[in-house]
## 1
Amino acid sequence: MKNSYSSEMFNMSNNLLKEIIHYIAAPLTYSINLCLIEGVFPDALKLSKVTPVFKKALGKVFEGIIYQQMYEYLELNDMLSASQFAYRKGRSVIHAIELLVTDILVAFEDHAQTQETGGEFRKSSVKHTRGSTWSAAGI
């Protein structure tokens, strides 16, 4: 048996059982042999104690609740940039590309310049950042 302080229905852990095995070995052996001879397993030993511990799931619940509250607060107080597309409902990378293409086409038609800057953040570090200046003369 693995070392464990987790207890079962009778509040006995593996560690406790290992400590007292010398005292209970004879009656335990007799009981086990009697079960095998008679073909009967005691009903009291058919019970189990199940205690679910959802550590990771609980963390996800907290994360979801905090995210929702912060998102609603930022949206309600108009604190998110109009060009923020990631992690926002109703916005996607497609919307960002449409905005980029529209800005470039308008600048091209107006014979003007436009500066587009994009960034992608993953795992708290900058993966890619690029700035470009477009002009009608350059196309």
## 2
Amino acid sequence: MFAGGIFSFCGMFGMVFATDVLQLTIFIGVVMGFGQCLVFNSVISSISYIFGSEKFGLYLGISLCGISFGTMVFSIFTEVLIQSYGLHGAYLFLAGLMLNQCVAAVFIHYQWKKKQLHRSSSEIHLLEEQVKEVEVNLNGSSILRKLSSVTKFRELKAIPGMFIFIVVFAMFEGTYQARMPYIVPKAIDNGIDPMAAATGFSIFGASGIVGRLFQILVNAITNCNAMSIFFFALCLNCVSNLLLSLTAQYSWYILALIFDGVSYGLLLPYTIAIIKQLSGHRLLAVASGWGFTFIGVMSVIWGVLYGWFYYIFGSYQEVFLLCFVMECISIKLILISRPLRKMIQCRPTFRDTNFE
């Protein structure tokens, strides 16, 4: 996580001196993207490690509220920075904020060390056995076997529905991240004032907080199945993409962003919960790593494809229509996968703090 903060700082700081699209792509798309991937995956693993399985969903939801809060605040704050200090000054200010991730990494490492001191002898013995198992698998093995052992490919492949869900996760998240930069430009193209468009995007962040508070509430009082809410949120996100593609009025733009924020506020925490439910505590970090690797690949593909669509059609409407189609395919993948389809059931039982 500390290394991810440094990479994020370097990527944002490099934008101060960027003068063309290639440099922008390298600093933001490669350097900062790599750093953010390290940070996010480390945060998820740290939450699972520090708090364990008992209240994982609750603390995960609280932590992810920060993403929605940041989206709500920084969509307007960044516009104010640009108007006050110019584009390069805004990047310099944001680069400084990226270093706070390093400070957070130090605090998390302190909590990790603190928990290490309170481990029972059985937990320490289990960890030692796992380390020995990895060392045995790595010694004297071929490169492919070593790679398979480190990535836990065979173990994850044996879990019913795991890789299909990882593909679903990558499809909706990859298309989602690739289309985010087009939301405000589409509103401006439709004649909406830039500040009003940025304000609307802050409503997206506020709606994300609502979605995550709902997730925290559900997780605190019921054991409602995570896949049920994930499936509902994915359908709601499809509706938001359809509204964003078809509407040109500001009121419908706001409604679409509310749907978008609430659905994404539910999708991300429940995605991690489902991956943990399928893979267990021990394989969570590796399974999440597979998911974020596929997301990176999807983001590259769809980023290029969205740009090509805009170049061909000259509007952003087709970009959001393509997102709608891809998320419909994600829904279809869940429905045709028997293990995932069986998970779509909701039988709430109160006073249970687990997703499972």
